[in-house]
């Protein structure tokens, strides 16, 4: 019963996951932007499918095709740059909070070329998730299994807490930006009002001088 309860809680506190697929040409770079807190583990799984012009469908695999993965931090530092196979897993840990750019570019081998054929890339990105080795868990007795799952659950709670701190930090930064913007708008409105008043006074004075010169008053 305890293990079922913990399993339910783990599913409830699951980390953020982004699963999608997109189309790309050979050697064409595609990038996505992930807003990631600091000191957060990110794991990405991908799979490449090649379009078969004869079958008019995407094949299950694309042998001979590599995938070059590049991860850039908000400070423009290259955090990961590595060539993988047609299907694989990459991971990195963020050192700065902010928008990280994850780019994937297909790269055929010297012996295989697909002539610019269309590719479908399946991508699953998990932020802040530490996977449990189920084989290790099953090998332990029930008490150890509960302890392992509890430790994993605590890690998830820590990640959620870190995510909330990051959101509060972003909210505070947005609030300061909004206040500065409102302050600038207020001062600009005051400056515009002073300019309009000055122009009005100048026009009144000009008209008065004109009427006096014409001896109309």
Automatic annotation (TrEMBL):
Keywords: Endoplasmic reticulum, Membrane, Signal, Transmembrane, Transmembrane helix. It comes from the Eukaryota. It is a single-pass type I membrane protein. The chain crosses the membrane at residues 6-23, 185-204. The keyword Transmembrane applies. GO terms for cellular component: endoplasmic reticulum membrane. Pfam families: EMP24_GP25L. It is found in: Endoplasmic reticulum membrane; Membrane. Residues 29-127 form the GOLD domain. InterPro entries: Emp24-like, GOLD_dom. Signal peptide: none annotated. Belongs to the EMP24/GP25L family. This is GOLD domain-containing protein. The lineage of its organism: Eukaryota, Metazoa, Chordata, Craniata, Vertebrata.
